[in-house]
């Protein structure tokens, strides 16, 4: 098996250069990125990725959700491909590595195989999934959800951003609506490399997180309706302040999550206040509760408790409450064979590693429903992510990508 031994490594400097070059597209204001999905910056990032893929001899396919699939052929034309990838879109104040490492790390794997002339029985595909973040068009992991058959494509096209712009229209506008039917591709397996987005690996001094499970998620979009009136002339006892209702909801979400420690988290991260004027008491507030756990029963219990308690808390301050699920997925357990390949790769390379549960949602969580899937994580400084100050080291990036390389080679079967 030429090139498949323990000494096989990716080109760490080339990977880091690619990460830095991609970060120049859609720069943030504090060193990170604002490359939200289906913006002009997203289109520019996609074009650069396509250019790099074609230079590496890959054939690009794009599906009707805009997801990109760059294929390196295998020796067996009938073998299903081994896929690897993540996403290029970012949060409005996102870092340079969240998602991007998984896409460009996968590309670096292919570049390394090309350098060494390594051939595999299965084709290898590098994937950029559309709208993983869900920050512009909710829910998150939209395209991979459609691919896995858990989100309707028409529903996805009709998602609108804060300005009322429609997902389907924006996909066409930036020129990345492909012709390939979503979900038509079959996968032998998929691997996703990602930064941890949490502090555990760094705190434990481990280079690699072998992801065994993902957290399930429930996003509950809530509306509190009070009465807008002048903040100076409205007596306190006559106020119906939606803001007071929000204060109670923030505490409620925190208290519910604390009841289910250590296997649960919850917060309110997105809030829209109407009319959002300094001298008008808030008449309406729309916010999203984010509950997560890798234990399904815990996740369902938190949601049930919130629904049972929130309306009464709102009523106590004279505010109406309404809510509905805006995004959800159950906790996935990743494929044992793929997880074993990741763990074995870390051991072969002599890298410190530990089993870990992903605290964030990822495209792999949906793809796990239709193909054997696993994730590889590398540390990030102070566990910080979804922040322009997000940081990793070149050594962490290289170690994670080396593990990806060896796990994919084992799964794709080196020949010759």
**Count of helical stretches:** 12
Series of secondary-structure elements, N-terminal to C-terminal: HHEEEHEEHHHEHEEHEEHEHEHEHE
Mean residue pLDDT: 96
Main beta-sheet strand count, sense and barrel state: 8 strands, mixed
Main sheet strand line-up: 1-2-5-3-6-13-7-12
Question: Would you kindly provide a written description of the structure presented here, covering whatever features stand out?
Answer:
With 416 residues, this protein is an alpha/beta fold. 34% of the residues lie in helices and 21% in strands. The chain has twelve helices and 14 strands. The chain has helices spanning 12-22, 40-55, 100-116, 142-147, 153-157, 167-173, 200-204, 242-259, 296-316, 336-348, 363-367, 394-412, and strands at residues 59-62, 68-72, 82-86, 119-120, 124-128, 189-195, 208-214, 216-225, 265-274, 284-293, 320-329, 353-358, 373-378, 414-415. It has an eight-stranded mixed sheet with strand order 1-2-5-3-6-13-7-12. It has a four-stranded antiparallel sheet with strand order 9-10-8-11, with helices on one face. Helix 1 (12-22) crosses helix 12 (394-412) and helix 3 packs across helix 12. The longest helix is centred in the last third of the chain and has 21 residues, at 296-316. The chain is globular, with a radius of gyration of 22 Å. The N and C termini lie close together (6 Å).
């Amino acid at each position: 098996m030429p090139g498949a031994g323990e000494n096989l490594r990716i080109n760490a400097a080339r990977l880091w250069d690619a990460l830095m070059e991609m970060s120049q597209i859609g720069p943030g204001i504090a060193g990170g990125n604002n490359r939200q999905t289906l913006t002009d910056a997203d289109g520019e990032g996609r074009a650069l990725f396509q250019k790099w893929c074609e230079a590496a001899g890959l054939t690009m396919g794009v599906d009707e959700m805009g997801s990109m699939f760059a294929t390196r052929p295998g020796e067996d034309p009938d073998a299903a491909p081994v896929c690897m990838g993540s996403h290029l879109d970012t949060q409005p104040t996102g870092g340079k590595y969240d998602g991007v490492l998984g896409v460009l790390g996968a590309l670096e794997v292919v570049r390394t195989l090309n350098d060494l002339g390594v051939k595999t029985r299965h084709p290898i595909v590098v994937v950029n999934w559309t709208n993983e973040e869900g920050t512009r068009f909710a829910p998150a992991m939209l395209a991979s959800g459609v691919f896995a058959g858990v989100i309707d494509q028409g529903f996805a096209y009709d998602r609108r951003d804060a300005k009322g712009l429609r997902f389907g229209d924006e996909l066409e506008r930036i020129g990345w609506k492909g012709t390939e039917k979503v979900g038509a591709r079959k996968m032998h397996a998929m691997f996703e490399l990602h930064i941890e987005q949490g502090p555990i690996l760094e705190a434990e001094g481990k280079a690699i997180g072998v992801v065994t499970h993902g957290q399930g998620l429930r996003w509950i979009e809530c509306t509190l309706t009070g009465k807008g009136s002048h903040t100076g002339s409205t007596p306190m006892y006559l106020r119906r302040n939606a803001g007071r209702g929000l204060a109670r909801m923030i505490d409620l979400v925190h208290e519910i999550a604390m009841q289910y420690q250590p296997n649960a988290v919850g917060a309110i991260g997105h809030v829209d206040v109407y009319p959002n004027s300094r001298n008008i008491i808030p008449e309406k507030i729309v916010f999203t509760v984010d509950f997560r756990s890798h234990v399904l029963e815990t996740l369902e219990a938190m949601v049930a408790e919130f629904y049972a308690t929130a309306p009464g808390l709102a009523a106590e301050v004279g505010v109406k409450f309404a809510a509905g699920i805006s995004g959800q997925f159950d906790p996935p357990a990743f494929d044992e064979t793929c997880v074993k390949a990741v763990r074995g790769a870390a051991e072969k390379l002599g890298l410190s590693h530990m089993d870990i549960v992903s605290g964030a949602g990822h495209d792999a969580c949906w793809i796990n429903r239709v193909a054997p899937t696993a994730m590889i994580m590398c540390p990030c400084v102070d566990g910080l992510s979804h922040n322009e100050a997000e940081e990793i080291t070149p050594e962490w990036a290289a170690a994670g990508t080396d593990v990806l390389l060896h796990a994919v080679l084992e799964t794709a079967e080196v020949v010759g």
